[in-house]
Write a sequence for this structure.
């Protein structure tokens, strides 16, 4: 797996905001079929580099390659069109709309024929069927009503729907921003299982998290970000949690063989 | 290292693993809860019930004087202008905005239609098209200021209200074009006032337009992607944007459409009062907001149905006519409408609690 061309490769990415350099010649690599956790202290620039990858910010220097081809995203929508999905920390859902409406927000399916072409009618049954299938696939089941509004769901259920939405449309990879931050122990558990489930479908995941136990549990590799650049990438098996924290905060130098 | 990992596993596996995340729990609720849930799913039911009850009560009190095809359709004629403007207002309020310039756009559009025909001798249909275009453009300006310059809709439309109204008076030189003159020279301007009689029931083109407009908008809001986007933008513009909705384009379309509808209301206004008067329609702002609020559309955006505003406008119409036929002081109407507004918002708050 690892000898393939990486799904995403960032080379020497730089992003400056005025006098502040948020990303300082950083590299990045996501491989096929893996869960890559990105950890770093507050302000280390971990969300900046992920934003650069998905088009939310445009880097000043460096290049980003997806499947070995250079890309220049100017908005997250362009990244989305390539099959890159993001699960935002805020989830980006409309509470007053139904699960199905939310899953298809911005990419609705229209009916075929006259009703769809001229009256632009949505194909509700198709959207609902698809949404129900996707939730079932991920074991988010026993849906009483796919037309239930999102605001009637619990925090974990909402997270589940957001992950299902991403998994349903992602063909390249998924970025998850702090998916367990707002959840209780039980609900976090389920979301972690969900993340592993998505991985088992062959979709690689970039996981941004502050939660070390969660990171060490699901990640295949851990990208440690410090002072605007990739300090090193470690494997959860070769490194303890406290070492990771030490690396992240600068209390420890990275071992020679893993330094980036 | 493996010690650390195992430690975590243990404390977390203490939490029951089999509990699933997205299980849709069985809602156990009583009769009241059921009612609350139904109303939450169908927000225009409350005003519909109020409307039916109001018609029944006045019907019982007044008998056939009220409960006749003529009186019923008279109500429709009386609410047509407010109904059309309320449709425009509903769209804006669904995006969590408010439009204080609807009345001004309506009057100014009607003045443009009238003055273009009579001052410059432009054929009436062309003048009407100019009026409609002007309304759409003012709406576009509102939308641009709200969406691009990011000013609060209340402030934008408060300013636009004054600007458009002043322009209206300056341009028209406070002149009214008389009804007879329009009838003789440009009857097309009064097209919306065309009446036809179906077994005692009197309909006008304006009434039909209002009903068709509301039905078309109700369809578009419910069954097209555009409609879903309007709700999503009103609910949470940031979330809508992140999930791929073009927030700017949605807001622009809503404000432009609202301006266009107000201009149509201006045309209908000529049909209703016969003349073109720059001083008419001054209450359209407050009446349209009243209809929308009584109709159960949330002022916070993203919730409610446009059918509700039609019911809201009709409720006001039923109260006005019913109380007048009963010989009550007109102030009673305002008093009751005031009560209804507060009750409607209280009901909205109660229904929203279903989400908690």
């Amino acid at each position: 797996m690892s000898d393939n061309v990486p799904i995403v490769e960032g080379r020497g990415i730089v992003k400056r905001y005025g006098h502040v350099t948020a990303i300082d010649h950083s590299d990045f690599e996501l491989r096929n079929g893996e869960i890559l956790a990105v950890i770093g202290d507050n302000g280390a620039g971990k969300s900046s580099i992920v934003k650069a990858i998905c088009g939310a910010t445009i880097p000043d220097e460096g290049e980003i390659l997806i499947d070995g081809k250079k890309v220049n995203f100017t908005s997250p929508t362009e990244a989305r069109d390539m099959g890159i999905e993001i699960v935002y920390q805020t989830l980006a859902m409309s509470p007053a709309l139904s699960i199905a409406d939310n899953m298809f927000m911005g990419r609705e399916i229209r009916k075929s024929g006259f009703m769809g072409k001229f009256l632009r009618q949505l194909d509700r049954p198709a959207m609902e069927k698809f949404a129900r299938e996707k939730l079932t696939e991920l074991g988010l089941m026993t849906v009483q009503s796919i037309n239930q509004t999102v605001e009637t769901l619990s925090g974990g259920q909402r997270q589940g729907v957001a992950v299902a939405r991403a998994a349903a449309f992602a063909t390249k990879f998924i970025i998850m921003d702090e998916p367990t931050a707002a959840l209780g122990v039980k609900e976090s558990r389920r979301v972690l299982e969900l993340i592993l489930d998505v991985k088992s479908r062959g979709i690689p995941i970039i996981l941004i998290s502050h939660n070390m136990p969660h990171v060490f549990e699901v990640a295949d590799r851990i990208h440690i970000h410090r002072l605007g650049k990739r300090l090193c990438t470690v494997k959860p098996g070769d490194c303890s949690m406290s070492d990771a924290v030490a690396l992240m905060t600068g209390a420890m130098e990275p071992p020679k063989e893993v330094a980036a | 290292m493996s010690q650390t990992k195992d430690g975590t596993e243990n404390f977390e596996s203490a939490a029951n693993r089999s509990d699933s995340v997205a299980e849709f729990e069985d809602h156990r609720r009583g009769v009241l809860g059921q009612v609350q849930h139904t109303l939450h799913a169908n927000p225009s039911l409350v005003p519909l019930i109020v409307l039916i009850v109001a018609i029944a009560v006045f019907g019982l009190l007044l008998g056939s004087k009220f409960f006749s095809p003529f009186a019923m359709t008279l109500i429709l004629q009386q609410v047509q202008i407010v109904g059309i403007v309320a449709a425009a207002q509903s769209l804006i309020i669904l995006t969590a905005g408010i439009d204080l310039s609807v009345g001004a756009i309506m009057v100014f559009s009607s003045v443009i239609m009238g003055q273009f025909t009579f001052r410059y001798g432009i054929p009436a249909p062309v003048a009407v098209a100019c009026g409609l275009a002007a309304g759409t453009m003012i709406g576009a300006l509102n939308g641009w200021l709200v969406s691009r310059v990011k000013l609060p809709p209340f402030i934008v439309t408060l300013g636009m209200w004054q600007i458009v109204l002043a322009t209206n008076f300056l341009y028209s030189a406070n002149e009214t074009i008389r009804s007879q003159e329009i009838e003789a020279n440009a009857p097309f301007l009064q097209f919306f006032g065309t009446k036809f009689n179906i077994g005692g029931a009197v309909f006008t083109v304006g009434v039909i337009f209002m009903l068709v407009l509301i039905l078309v908008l109700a369809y578009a809001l419910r069954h097209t992607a555009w409609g879903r986007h309007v709700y999503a933008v009103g609910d949470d513009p940031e979330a809508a944007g992140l999930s791929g909705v073009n927030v700017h384009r949605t807001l622009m379309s809503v404000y432009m459409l609202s301006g266009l509808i107000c201009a149509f209301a201006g045309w209908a206004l000529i049909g209703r009062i016969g003349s073109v008067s720059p001083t008419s329609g001054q209450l359209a702002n407050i009446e349209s907001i009243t209809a929308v609020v009584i109709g159960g559309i949330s002022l916070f955006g993203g919730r409610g149905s446009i059918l509700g505003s039609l019911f809201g406008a009709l409720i006001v119409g039923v109260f006005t006519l019913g109380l007048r036929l009963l010989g009550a002081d007109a102030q009673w109407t305002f008093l009751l409408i005031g009560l209804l507004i507060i009750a409607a918002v209280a009901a909205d708050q109660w229904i929203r609690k279903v989400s908690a």
Observations:
- The interface with chain A takes residues 1, 4-5, 8-9, 12-13, 15-17, 19-24, 26, 40, 219-220, 223-226, 228-229, 231-232, 235-236, 238-240, 242-245, 302-303, 354-355 of chain B (CB under 8 Å).
- Residues 46-346 of chain B form a domain with the ABC transporter involved in vitamin B12 uptake, BtuC fold (CATH 1.10.3470).
